[in-house]
């Protein structure tokens, strides 16, 4: 068949498939569609037809996170640098950048341009910035003052060392969603006047940092090492999920409130007798989940200060609340006057605590829990301590038909990088309730960075070229 016949045959086949309605869309619509693709795939659309040749240059998002698609750190760095150089000078509404996993012969190469890319994104009015350091050879060091933007609403940092004694996001007045995972902190203060959703997971605190976020409504603090951070007043907070996995603030002798006087965990905790680390700041929550191993004493020590949970309606606790005579649990229930649902989630084996006669401020006046719904999630309902808890609930008036005993939920694992053993290992999991709430937060913030641009997009679409 002559060459011209082959070309005509291909054109006929393309025509037989019907009109190309996607290419008929205005530029603004195509750019919005491409903005949801990885940037490499968006650039490749220039090969589809002449109509698509320059569309990618006006896409208002940079997404480079699937680093396995790049041969090396040099290959990935070259792509991002070229993308930023060749695109049109338009705002970048979302920036998602990840370093390569392989340093080859140059350990600095995977992280060489990270600061430059961040500066470029923030100077282009990015509303969302997500930075993923995938190179496990070293944490990327975030310099003081780098994250400064009046437009930034969402910030996510992965495997980053924050090199500052004061982490102040006041220079990001629009910041609403802040997430940090596998990060390292040595700051005495982490503060943001504007942030509403804060998640810190699988990270390490060198000292007992203070967290100041007066407008926070959602908190997730889980699986962190080092010292447990101290939460300052959070009057707007409605939901919090705190899971203690720290290697410090842990009584090695299992003393009830961390006052054995001999182990490193107790002696170095440096908590004053009238200082609340967590619970005072969490006392205004409506939904609360507090889980830890029995040896972690911070929750029990905070309870001795008798905070009142005046708005609390749903509560999930783990084995840390099982103390001698169940005073810690009774105190929590007495100081939660509107509590509607209690979930107790226990492991297969419960550790015994050394009772120290801690004063939890339990009230002498009688009180009733007849309105309370209880779920007990445990492997062995015949354990004598579980039986005593059920007797306690019965004593305080919880009807038997309002108590359900179930198997623990199927766990949802988080991955935590262990730099000492140079591998990945699963951490203990969150409950189903927490995971669902976290997903709701994700959905609420996923499109936040585009909201301010929607009106402009709709008004400009009529001006697009064919």
Structure description:
It holds the Pfam family F-box. InterPro entries: F-box-like_dom_sf, F-box_AtFBL13-like, F-box_dom, F-box_SCFL_complex_component, LRR_dom_sf. Residues 455-466 have a biased composition (Low complexity). Residues 1-22, 432-466 are annotated as: Disordered. Residues 432-450 have a biased composition (Polar residues). The longest helix is centred in the first third of the chain and has 14 residues, at 3-16. The protein is 24% helix and 21% strand. Helix 4 links the parallel strand 1 and strand 2. The strands form four sheets. Strands 1-2-3-5-8-11-14-17-18-19-20-21-22 form a 13-stranded parallel beta sheet, with helices on both faces. It has a five-stranded parallel beta sheet with strand order 4-6-9-12-15, with no helix packed on it. The chain is elongated. With 466 residues, the protein is α/β, with parallel strands linked by helices. It is built from twelve helices and 24 strands. The chain has helices spanning 3-16, 27-34, 39-44, 73-86, 114-123, 264-267, 279-282, 298-303, 327-334, 384-395, 432-445, 448-460; strands spanning 61-64, 94-98, 128-132, 140-143, 154-158, 160-163, 166-168, 177-181, 184-185, 189-191, 197-201, 204-205, 210-212, 218-222, 225-226, 230-231, 239-244, 287-292, 314-317, 341-345, 373-377, 403-406, 415-418, 423-426. The relative contact order is 0.08.
């Amino acid at each position: 068949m002559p060459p011209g016949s082959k070309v005509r045959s291909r054109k006929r086949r393309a025509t037989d498939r019907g009109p190309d309605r996607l290419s008929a869309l205005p530029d603004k619509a195509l750019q919005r569609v491409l903005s949801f693709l990885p940037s490499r795939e968006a650039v490749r659309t220039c090969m589809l037809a002449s109509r698509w040749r320059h569309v990618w240059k006006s896409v208002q998002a940079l997404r480079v996170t699937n680093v396995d698609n790049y041969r090396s750190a040099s290959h990935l760095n070259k792509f991002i640098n070229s993308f930023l150089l060749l695109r049109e000078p338009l705002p970048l509404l979302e920036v998602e950048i990840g370093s390569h996993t392989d340093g080859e012969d140059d350990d600095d190469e995977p992280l060489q341009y990270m600061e430059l890319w961040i500066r470029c994104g923030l100077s282009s009015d990015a509303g969302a910035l997500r930075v993923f350091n995938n190179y496990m050879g070293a944490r990327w060091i975030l310099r003081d003052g780098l994250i400064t933007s009046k437009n930034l609403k969402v910030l996510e940092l992965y495997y980053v060392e924050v090199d500052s004694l004061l982490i102040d996001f006041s220079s990001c007045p629009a910041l609403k969603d802040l997430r940090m995972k596998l990060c390292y902190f040595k700051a005495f203060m982490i503060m943001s006047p504007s942030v509403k959703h804060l998640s810190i997971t699988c990270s390490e605190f060198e000292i007992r940092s203070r967290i100041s976020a007066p407008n926070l409504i959602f908190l997730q603090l889980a699986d962190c090492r080092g010292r447990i951070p101290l939460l300052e007043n959070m009057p707007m907070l409605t939901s919090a999920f705190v899971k203690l996995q720290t290697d410090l603030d842990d009584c090695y002798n299992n003393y009830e409130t961390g006052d054995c006087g001999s182990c490193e965990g107790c002696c170095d905790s440096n908590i004053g007798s009238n200082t609340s680390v967590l619970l005072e700041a969490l006392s205004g929550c409506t939904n609360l989940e507090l889980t830890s191993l029995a040896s972690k004493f911070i929750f029990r020590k905070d309870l001795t200060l008798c905070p009142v949970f005046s708005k609390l309606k749903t509560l999930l606790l783990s084995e840390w609340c099982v103390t001698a005579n169940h005073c810690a649990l009774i105190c929590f229930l007495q100081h939660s006057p509107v509590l509607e649902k209690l979930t107790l989630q226990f492991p297969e084996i419960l550790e015994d605590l050394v009772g120290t006669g801690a004063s939890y401020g339990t009230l002498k006046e009688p009180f009733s829990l007849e309105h309370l719904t209880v779920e007990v999630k445990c492997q062995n309902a015949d354990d004598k301590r579980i039986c005593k808890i059920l007797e306690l609930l019965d004593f305080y008036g919880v009807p038997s038909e309002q108590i359900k005993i179930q198997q623990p939920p199927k766990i949802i694992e988080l991955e935590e990088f262990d730099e000492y053993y140079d591998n990945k290992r699963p951490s203990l999991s969150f409950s189903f309730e927490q995971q669902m709430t976290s997903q709701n937060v994700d959905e609420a913030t996923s499109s936040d960075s585009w909201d301010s641009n929607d009106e402009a997009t709709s008004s400009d679409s009529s001006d697009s070229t064919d």
